[in-house]
Amino acid sequence: MFQFSNSLFHMKEAFKAVENKDFSELERKVMFEKATELPFTGEYYDFFEEGIYVCKNCGLPLYRSQDKFHSGCGWPSFDDEVPGAVLRQPDKDGVRTELVCGYCGAHLGHVFTGEGFTKKDTRHCVNSVSLKFLPKGQKPEKEQIFFAAGCFWGVEHLFKQCEGVLDTQVGFMGGHTDHPTYEEVCTGTTGHAETVRVVYDTKVDVENLIKYFFEIHDFTQVNRQGPDWGKQYRSVIFYTSEEQKQKAEKIKALLSQKYKVATSIEKASTFWPAEDYHQDHYDKTGKTPYCHYRRAIFGKDIPISLD
Ligand SMILES: [Zn+2]
């Protein structure tokens, strides 16, 4: 049985996969035991159709065809990831930087910089067997978006009750330090915001999740949410796709006709999961959030039709 060395990740998806999914020997070895497929053998090393690549284990989008390039190395090469999709961590060899799916922890490959292949000067060298290609026009079954709206305990608690939400996780995003701890973020010096990862079923329009986000916190407060003061409590939508960005901007513009909206809309960066004891906080304690509740603002004061 494989073991994950890094307790940072919640690996329930990966573990479920090993128990339940019908993966080939090679897929298991690469995704869960960090093996590497032989060069020039994978399905996608010489493949340049338009579309996106999702994680073969959990199904979340990882890479886009517009970031794929010919490197000649024998594995699929990308010079960028879907925002917030991957985690970089030191390889056991002490030299390279390993790439894993930021959500499920499946091993993807390695990332190299300074080789000069493209303007971004970055090469994600990814195993084909860790990926599944979806041609342009085919929607992934699930996607993720990240919301910061004050204390993440309450935000997570409310998103768990939202239609279409498949999973949530609390953590940190938007700052300048790696592997931040809760204590470090509380000092307000890391730049990170308390953030909730929301994995959702794409049968649900992400616009509904964005509206819900605005309804469960006071988006007019700057660097504050109720009793919690500090930049770590700021209001942010961290998008992972162009669709999410456009819908977030549309709704913010609509609300701005009536309110002074403090929420910023930013491209997702690395999501750092918070310590285990912060996950599902209100489920564990049986308490209810002290600072978050839902109030209906769409469809009443504001017309719901946005077209
Ligand atoms: Zn994954």
TrEMBL record:
One of its GO terms (molecular function) is peptide-methionine (R)-S-oxide reductase activity. The active site is at C151. It catalyses: L-methionyl-[protein] + [thioredoxin]-disulfide + H2O = L-methionyl-(S)-S-oxide-[protein] + [thioredoxin]-dithiol; [thioredoxin]-disulfide + L-methionine + H2O = L-methionine (S)-S-oxide + [thioredoxin]-dithiol; L-methionyl-[protein] + [thioredoxin]-disulfide + H2O = L-methionyl-(R)-S-oxide-[protein] + [thioredoxin]-dithiol. Residues 16-136 form the MsrB domain. One of its GO terms (cellular component) is cytoplasm. It is an enzyme of class 1 (oxidoreductase). Its EC number is 1.8.4.11. InterPro entries: Met_Sox_Rdtase_MsrA_dom, Met_Sox_Rdtase_MsrA_sf, Met_Sox_Rdtase_MsrB_dom, MsrA_MetSO_reductase, Mss4-like_sf. The keyword Oxidoreductase applies. One of its GO terms (biological process) is cellular response to oxidative stress. It comes from the Bacteria. Keywords: Multifunctional enzyme, Oxidoreductase. The keyword Transport does not apply. Belongs to the MsrA Met sulfoxide reductase family. HAMAP family: MsrA (MF_01401). Has an important function as a repair enzyme for proteins that have been inactivated by oxidation. Catalyzes the reversible oxidation-reduction of methionine sulfoxide in proteins to methionine. This is Peptide methionine sulfoxide reductase MsrA. It comes from Coprothermobacter proteolyticus (strain ATCC 35245 / DSM 5265 / OCM 4 / BT). The gene is msrA.
